[in-house]
Task: structure prediction
Amino acid sequence: MNASSDFDIAVIGGGIIGLVSAYKIMKSHPKIRIAVLEKEEKVAAHQSGRNSGVIHSGLHYTPGSNKARTCIEGRKELVEFAKKYKIPCKICGKIIVATKTKELVNLETILSNGQESDIEGIEKIGPERIKEIEPSCEGVAGILVPGTGIIDFTKVADKLARLVQKRGSKNKVLTSHEVTALDKHDFYTKVITNQGAFGARYIINCAGLQSDRVAKMDSVEPGMKIIPFRGDYYQLTAQAQEKVKGLIYPVPDPALPFLGVHFTRTIAGSVECGPNAVFSFKREGYGKTDFDWADSWDALSYPGLWKMFFKYWRYGLGEYARAFSRKLFLRQLQRLLPSLQIDDIKPCKAGVRAQAIDPGGRPIDDFKIESKGNSIHVLNAPSPAATASLAIGEHINQLATEHFKLED
Ligand SMILES: Cc1cc2nc3c(=O)[nH]c(=O)nc-3n(C[C@H](O)[C@H](O)[C@H](O)COP(=O)(O)OP(=O)(O)OC[C@H]3O[C@@H](n4cnc5c(N)ncnc54)[C@H](O)[C@@H]3O)c2cc1C
Result:
């Protein structure tokens, strides 16, 4: 290939963020030539295809943060997108349930965050209303969040991939193309993949669990490291499914908001419970004992990880114990659904979260998207990035338009 002129933009990563970025840029710059390079055989093979499938309302996030703003905007756009392209999606609402009085302070904080962010229809509910909505659930108080929904994000990613390619042969989604190096030249970058090299004027890094490594390929010091946390899910058996009508969430700890298993009636009709969060010895490892030397060394040689371990070791041990003991996992689920029994749950799937940790050992909470030279790097896109994806894509389009000086 003529390395200097293949594409205007190479997007690295065919998860939902890479695909939506290509889609938004292509829509506002119809003449552009974009390639999305994805190392797996299909798009959405990692986080985007292995998540809870919840369309979040935006309630949990600090009012005014990028997370809160893009979640609210993106959720509305996602529902419209799903309607337009006939992707099954349901706004079923959820309840957040405090099971102990000591959780009431955090419940109030979530409620006031939600009110400040103008999340529509939220209301505080008592034990009787909880029982009316979810008869098997026990709680001292809760919040009803009518705007929460469910969707299959793999279907959204597949649709985006088809839309990117539909506009004309100049835009491509190339699966089984792993980017292994970036060779920078004055006016273009030679993007080296396992299937040959491509020339691109600009690079957008949306590599999820590998985003810090791709940034380094581009000589960008990301100022954080991706630490993988695996989340295991169980599924309720057919007989137990009636115990859950919709979505039931615990009150999260504000320091570690991604901890706390929840119940989700999925768009396919099954009921999933989870995920927990355990340090994973492999960035893309979905089995409980998966191990990769390079990934483990990379994580364990990072001082930030040890600082985080020392701070949160109690939580970490608890999560580990639950990962290997169905009984302990059940005990956590029983806080919300006391009648649940060991035979009611069976293991189903796992996902791995790309959590960016700063050198001080703090999980980076908000989205982190940076532009430098001829590149944009999405360095942290944790939950609710799938919900917020269309708004994040628009933000990346605006960054690219300005920063790369794209023409219409
Ligand atoms: C367990 C779990 C539950 C979640 N639940 C929800 C939820 O209910 N709602 C919600 O909104 N969000 C949820 N999230 C978060 C959401 O799934 C992610 O924020 C979102 O999918 C991130 O998308 P992404 O495109 O950045 O990453 P990914 O989907 O991981 O995509 C990155 C892609 O880059 C590719 N790639 C990496 N390196 C290279 C390379 N060198 N060359 C080519 N390709 C490369 C990978 O193969 C991958 O396909 C959850 C996440 C997890 C893990």
Remarks:
- The mean pLDDT is 94.
- The longest strand covers residues 345-357.
- The longest helix spans residues 303-324.
